[in-house]
């Protein structure tokens, strides 16, 4: 059976530091053990950089020869179709979870090696209910046999239940923290919430670091349960 094929155009590849940090993140994940296969990427607040990291990480895992499926579980708002200028008509997770389409129409091959994608689909009024269905877990369990890694992008963890619902069916979570935007207390709250879901926190990614101002950036973030070196100027390319 032929799956739909989509072409993604990445308008702004990450900078050198960003790409190096993504590679470090990939190898840390690969060393976290064979039982870590389904991973959710979340953050406390909107706009901290989850979706960018999920995509670049998925690409990098694919390049390393492992089969990866990126699942956009942000049913409240999808960025992938417009951000990567996808022209093909695609179906999405919300349609699948509400029983409107079958899985064959859900999974898309991409122009990146070993990388398949599931988009979020039309905005649904009840995202956490859809994601909490046992059918979603069963579906992921089947996909474990097909892919080496499943990466799940979610909405922010604070103030919305979706990330915690998804974490319940994942082996591990990565918490993205935007430098200077999240207090220690709030990060701890997100960590506790993930762990309550029974999901292992694999580590935190400190994102949007202003390297000019943070020569020794990252050190303090050890407290958040792990540290993946990660940096970008935090400024938009000019
Ligand atoms: N390291 C970085 N340096 C500078 N800008 C960044 C970096 N990472 C992401 N951005 C920018 O920040 C914005 C938010 O990124 P992204 O959509 O990945 O965040 P998100 O956490 O998925 O947001 P949401 O919670 O709304 O889904 C985008 O405009 C993106 O280009
Ligand atoms: Mg996002």
Description:
The radius of gyration is 17 Å and the shape is globular. It is an alpha/beta fold and 238 residues long. It has eight helices and nine strands. Bound molecules: adenosine-5'-triphosphate and magnesium ion. Adenosine-5'-triphosphate (ATP) binds next to α2.
Q: How would you concisely characterize the structure shown here?
A:
The protein is built from eight helices and nine strands. It is α/β, with parallel strands linked by helices and 238 residues long.
Features:
alpha/beta; 8 helices; binds adenosine-5'-triphosphate; binds magnesium ion
Which regions have little confidence, pLDDT < 50, spanning 5+ residues? 217-238
Major sheet characteristics: 9 strands, mixed
Task: Tally the structural domains.
Answer: 1
CATH architecture: 3-Layer(aba) Sandwich
Count of helical stretches: 8
User: Over the alpha carbons, how many angstroms does the gyration radius reach?
Assistant: 17 Å
By CATH reckoning, the class would read Alpha Beta
> What's the name of the CATH homologous superfamily?
P-loop containing nucleotide triphosphate hydrolases
The name CATH uses for the topology is Rossmann fold
Instruction: Please write the string of helix (H) and strand (E) elements.
Output: EHEHEHHEEHHEHEHEE
Proportion of strand residues: 15-25%
Number of strands: 9
Q: Mean of the pLDDT scores?
A: 88
Distance between the termini: 45 Å
- State the helicity in percent bands: 25-40%
**Morphology:** globular
Hetero ligands: adenosine-5'-triphosphate, magnesium ion
């Amino acid at each position: 059976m032929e799956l739909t094929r989509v072409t993604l155009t990445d308008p702004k590849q990450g900078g050198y530091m960003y790409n190096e940090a993504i590679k470090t993140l990939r190898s840390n994940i690969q060393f976290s053990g064979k039982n870590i296969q389904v991973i959710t990427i979340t953050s406390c607040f909107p706009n901290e950089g989850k979706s960018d990291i999920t995509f670049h990480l998925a690409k990098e895992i694919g390049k390393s020869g492992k089969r990866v499926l990126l699942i956009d579980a942000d049913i409240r708002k999808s960025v992938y179709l417009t951000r990567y200028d996808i022209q093909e008509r695609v179906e999405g997770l919300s349609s699948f979870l509400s029983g409107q389409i079958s899985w064959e129409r859900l999974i898309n091959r991409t122009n990146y090696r070993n990388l398949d994608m599931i988009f979020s689909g039309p905005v649904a009024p009840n995202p956490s209910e859809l994601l909490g269905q046992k059918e979603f877990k069963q579906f992921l369990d089947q996909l474990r046999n097909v892919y080496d890694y499943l990466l799940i992008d979610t909405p922010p963890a604070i103030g919305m239940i979706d990330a915690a619902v998804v974490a319940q069916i994942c082996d591990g979570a990565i918490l993205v923290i935007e430098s200077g935007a999240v207090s220690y207390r709030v990060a701890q709250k997100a960590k506790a919430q993930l762990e309550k879901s029974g999901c292992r926190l694999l580590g935190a990614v400190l994102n949007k670091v202003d390297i000019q101002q943070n020569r020794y950036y990252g050190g303090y973030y050890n407290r958040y349960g792990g540290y993946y070196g990660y940096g970008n100027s935090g400024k938009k390319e000019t």
